[in-house]
Amino acid sequence: MLKSTPLNAVHRAAGARMVDFGGWDMPVNYGSQIEEHHAVRRDAGMFDVSHMQVVDIEGGDVRAFLRFALANNVDKLKTPGKALYSCMLDERGGVIDDLIAYFFREDFFRLVVNAGTAAKDVAWLSALEAKRNAGLTITPRRELAMIAVQGPNARAKFWSAFPALRPMSESLAPFNGELPGDEQMVARTGYTGEDGFEMVVPAARAADTWNALAAAGVRPCGLGARDTLRLEAGMNLYGQDMDEGVSPLDAGLAWTVDLASPRDFVGRQALRAAGQQREFLGLVLTEAGGVLRSHQQTEDDRGAGEVTSGTFSPTLSRSIALARLPRGTAPGDTVRVRIRDKALAAKVVKPPFVRNGKVLVN
Amino acid sequence: MNVPQDLRYTESHEWVKRESDGTVSIGITDHAQAQLGDIVFVEPPKPGRKVKAGEAVGVVESVKAASDIYAPVSGEVVAANSDLAGSPEKVNADAYAAWMFRIKPDDAAALDQLLDAAAYEKAAST
Q1: pLDDT digits 0-9 by tens, A175-202
Q2: Which of A33, A291, A314 sits opposite B41 (nearest CB)?
Q3: What is the pLDDT at residue A260?
Q4: In a domain, B56, yes or no
Q5: How far is A316 from chain B (nearest CA, A)?
Q6: A125 — phi, psi (to 5°)?
Q7: pLDDT of A112-122, one tens digit each?
Q8: pLDDT averaged over every residue in chain A
Q9: What is the pLDDT of residue A245?
């Protein structure tokens, strides 16, 4: 039995093509994935991301707990509402999940974690909390829905749908969130490389919120467009670009791991011992003959590599990918990618491919 | 479901049209293009290639996935639609106009073994 979000009936009524996404019945598109992609790059689109899990951690020195539990350093979060992208590692340095941590009070942080890993994450955090006897409450907020509104016109359309939220959200700097009501969060975050908000609302208000945004001219977009947008933006997808068998240092996430400071955190010793083994870079297919996809093998002078995420980029009108390549491979190099019976040339680039509507690679 | 009466079909979602010169044109059905989503790459078999019925002879890729195209009948490929290389989205716009390749069948009667519209519609909706 697939799990469904509070917006399931709204998607079906809108004619969405629904797919099984990690056990969730989710819209992959409402017609054309490419048009939805362009809507986000050029105007405003919205995504139902209610399958993702809000996890609240409260009741004591939450900062000290997360300083140990997360690979990125929550001490970077100095002002209430500030958010931080981080991996959560196991003792071997493998990635249990990637997440966003919001600091609201010393005794209240909020995590937003991936759908497929939520149960595992909560179990891991709870075990870690018990072991440290930290006296914290870890609460998955299953009664909340989440909608991402993204694109150059996303904020303006959001304000026209919810004028009352304008004063608080207009002053939000990127990667900051606020709790305008007990059961609601508005954050200037996203997974598309465009400006916008992610909004958390009680499940009972999800449909009204969605419909108000649609009436304001925000285009419903499925998970298909979400994937092409995040790939163009050079953002990793858990389960494809990294997982428990991959070090964040080999997934382009060294910038999120602070190994220089003496701070102790789960996975630190393993990362220091292993170091970086692979380059994690972008590819642009320069030869016709197919589309880059995850698991395709690459070959260059330095050895073999693997595409971790690949797609056709609607903005570049070319196939692009994220790939794990031999150490020493650098932007400007050419690799050959095995696609069916061919070995096609692809240029190595430094992600992101696109940010704020602009192409950053050539 | 958009399934023209005058065509023949396969369970692997190809449509087959008998041309006046004795060849058959082949494409993918409207149902198939809708399932695949935005199509970004089409690779039909090259003219001159001898193919067997049921053999994977070409590829169509959407943003979402790659899918094989199968030869509905045995014979020789006599033409490929080069238009689709530059504008694969034509398959989404009108799947029955976007023929991908033509075969000169070894046996003209082989076409009669393929699904008719009603049978395809039934197969595709289960």
Answers
A1: 999 998 867 899 999 999 999 999 999 9
A2: A291
A3: 86
A4: yes
A5: 12
A6: -60, -40
A7: 999 999 999 99
A8: 97
A9: 98
| Interface test mutation site (partner A, options B38, B41, B90, max chain A beta carbons within 10 A) | B38
Does residue B3 lie within any of the structural domains?
no
Contact A143, A203 (CB under 8 A): yes
Among chain A residues, the shortest Cα distance to B68 is held by A340
- Residue B73 maps to a domain: yes
**pLDDT of the residue at A99:** 98
Candidates A34, A341, A342, partner chain B, best to mutate (most B CBs within 10 A): A34
Of B41, B63, B85, the CB nearest to A228: B63
CA distance linking residue B82 with residue A300, whole number of Å: 31
Query: Are A88 and A95 a contacting pair, CB within 8 Å?
Result: yes
Decide if B36 is inside a domain.
yes
Answer yes or no: do B63 and A28 touch at CB < 8 A: no
Residue ranges per domain, chain A?
277-359
Q: Measured between alpha carbons, how far is B103 from A346 in angstroms, rounded to an integer?
A: 34
Beta bridge partners of A149: A46, A197
Q: What's the gap in Å between the CA of A291 and the closest CA on chain B?
A: 7
Query: Nearest to residue A351, comparing CAs of A360, A343, A362?
Result: A360
Sign of CA dihedral B62, B60, A353, A112: positive
How far is A311 from chain B, CA to nearest CA, in Å?
6
Under an 8 A CB cutoff, do A291 and B66 touch? yes
Give the side-chain half-sphere CA count within 13 A for A210: 25
Q: Which helix (H) or strand (E) holds A36?
A: helix A33-42
Q: Give the model's pLDDT for residue A208.
A: 98
Do A33 and B66 make contact, defined as CB atoms within 8 angstroms? no
Measured between CA atoms, how close is B24 to chain A, in angstroms? 25
State the CATH architecture for A277-359.
Answer: Beta Barrel (2.40)
Summarize the confidence of residues B94-103 as an average pLDDT: 98
Q: pLDDT-derived band of residue B112, with 50, 70 and 90 as boundaries?
A: very high
Could you tell me the CATH number of the domain that includes residue B58?
A: 2.40.50.100
Average of per-residue pLDDT across A117-138? 97
- The answer to whether the CB atoms of A290 and B92 lie below 8 A apart is no
B9 forms beta bridges with: B15, B115
- Quick one: tokens of A303? 């050895």
Per the structure, the complete domain to which residue B98 belongs is given by 8-120
Asked if B63 and A314 come within 8 Å (Cβ–Cβ), the reply is yes
- Complex ipTM > 0.90: no
Into how many domains does chain B fold?
1
Please determine, for residue A256, whether its predicted confidence score (pLDDT) is greater than 90.
yes
Nearest-CA distance A317 → chain B (Å): 9
**Mean pLDDT, range A299-311, rounded to an integer:** 97
The verdict on a CB contact (< 8 Å) between B63 and A289 is: no
